[in-house]
TrEMBL record:
<feature type="domain" description="VanZ-like">
    <location>
        <begin position="40"/>
        <end position="169"/>
    </location>
</feature>
<keyword id="KW-0472">Membrane</keyword>
<dbReference type="Pfam" id="PF04892">
    <property type="entry name" value="VanZ"/>
</dbReference>
<dbReference type="InterPro" id="IPR006976">
    <property type="entry name" value="VanZ-like"/>
</dbReference>
<protein>
    <recommendedName>
        <fullName>VanZ-like domain-containing protein</fullName>
    </recommendedName>
</protein>
<feature type="transmembrane region" description="Helical">
    <location>
        <begin position="30"/>
        <end position="47"/>
    </location>
</feature>
<keyword id="KW-0812">Transmembrane</keyword>
<feature type="transmembrane region" description="Helical">
    <location>
        <begin position="91"/>
        <end position="113"/>
    </location>
</feature>
<feature type="transmembrane region" description="Helical">
    <location>
        <begin position="6"/>
        <end position="23"/>
    </location>
</feature>
<feature type="transmembrane region" description="Helical">
    <location>
        <begin position="120"/>
        <end position="142"/>
    </location>
</feature>
<dbReference type="InterPro" id="IPR053150">
    <property type="entry name" value="Teicoplanin_resist-assoc"/>
</dbReference>
<feature type="transmembrane region" description="Helical">
    <location>
        <begin position="154"/>
        <end position="175"/>
    </location>
</feature>
<keyword id="KW-1133">Transmembrane helix</keyword>
C-alpha cells in the first residue's frame, strides 16, 4: 500500500523551488515563505484526501482484465446530489467538495498575480479537479483504489475555486484600504 508520505519529497522540492525563485526575484519575506509552506502542506492534505492510499498488490487482477466497464466508475447524474441534499451524506459532500479547492485559488492567487484573474483561478480549480477525478478513474480501473469519477465533484470543486477567488479578491480589497 502506498501512502501519501511518498509526496513529501516532491513537495519539499517544490517548496525549495519556491524559495529559490523568491531569492532570485528578491521577494523573500517571512510571510511569503510561510504562505508557500502552507500551500505545500495544503497540497499534501488535498492529495492525501483524494488519492491515497493506493492499493498495490502483486497478485491482484485488474478490473479491466475481469470484464470491468467504466459505467460503474463514473457518476454521471450531476443534479441528483443537488435534488437529494437532505439525504445523509449529501450535504457533507456538497459542502466538503464545494470548499475543497477554495484554499487553492486563494493561496495561488496570493502568490502569483496571474491567478488573481477570474478565468485563471477557475481554470486552476477546474484543471485540478479534473486531474483528481481522472486519476481516481484510472486508479479504479486498475483496482488501485475504490473512488469514482464524479461530475458533481468537478462542478462543486470549481464552485469552491470561485469561492476562494472571491475571498481572495475581498481580502485584497480590504488590505489595500488599510
Amino acid at each position: 500500500m502506498v501512502t501519501s508520505a511518498t509526496l513529501l519529497i516532491p513537495l519539499a522540492v517544490i517548496f525549495i523551488l519556491f524559495i529559490l525563485t523568491d531569492v532570485r526575484h528578491h521577494h523573500v519575506t517571512a510571510a511569503r515563505v510561510v504562505f508557500e509552506l502552507a500551500l505545500c502542506v495544503y497540497l499534501w492534505l488535498l492529495f492525501d484526501m483524494t488519492l491515497f492510499p493506493i492499493n498495490i498488490s502483486g497478485d491482484a487482477e485488474t478490473l479491466a482484465a475481469g470484464g470491468y466497464t467504466l459505467q460503474g466508475a463514473i457518476a454521471t447524474r450531476p443534479l441528483a446530489l443537488w435534488y437529494n441534499w437532505q439525504q445523509p451524506g449529501s450535504l457533507y459532500q456538497i459542502v466538503g467538495n464545494g470548499l475543497m479547492l477554495a484554499p487553492l485559488t486563494m493561496m495561488v492567487g496570493g502568490l502569483l498575480l496571474r491567478f488573481r484573474r477570474l478565468h485563471a483561478a477557475l481554470g486552476l480549480a477546474f484543471g485540478t479537479s479534473l486531474f483528481i477525478e481522472c486519476t481516481q478513474l484510472i486508479m479504479n480501473f486498475y483496482n488501485l483504489g475504490d473512488r469514482t469519477f464524479d461530475i458533481n465533484d468537478l462542478i462543486l470543486n470549481t464552485i469552491g475555486g470561485l469561492i476562494g477567488w472571491l475571498v481572495l479578491k475581498a481580502g485584497l480589497a480590504i488590505w489595500q484600504r488599510v
